[in-house]
């Protein structure tokens, strides 16, 4: 971890228009929860469906995309990464710091709003709020690592990330039974199911697979990103 790199990255993320993108999605989730509560739709089943389909199924991967690629892709695209690489800072340390910033942003803009939205709907009933916040926390960390790696691997990180988030995670991983085992959002729902006692929440992936998968994917993605940065020369070429 490097505090200078972290500080610069936080300023870049929170000072650009990305902050509005990061804030808009969780605010929309909370607004929907408030609206449902006002019209009398604040039951346990509705809360679980909202958390599954919108909080973890849609918002979380999109926030992962915004934060994960945002901490590194713009610097690679505009060439300012050269200034950072010219400093006596180990490349793996840069990758780890960028990952930590992305992960912290996802936790702040996803796990916390997820808890608040579910709590507004049904309070602490059946541990739904705590469960989905727990799932969003660890799934968000995995997304941060994966999208950081995407940002390092390709200059078309946003396009690749959108395809991954919407097509794989949203469509294939959400509805094709065999693909669910390889879906981060499904791993997050498995963790949520361990905390929540709601009968409306049924995990499709075993905890014995989901928990190690989150750890392995996170570690491998961050290490790979660090190694990839080692391959970038000060001219921006490999």
TrEMBL record:
Pfam families: ABC2_membrane_4. The chain crosses the membrane at residues 20-39, 54-74, 95-122, 128-150, 157-176, 205-225. It comes from the Bacteria. GO terms for cellular component: plasma membrane. One of its GO terms (molecular function) is ABC-type transporter activity. Keywords: Membrane, Transmembrane, Transmembrane helix. This is ABC transporter permease. It comes from Acrocarpospora macrocephala. The lineage of its organism: Bacteria, Bacillati, Actinomycetota, Actinomycetes, Streptosporangiales.
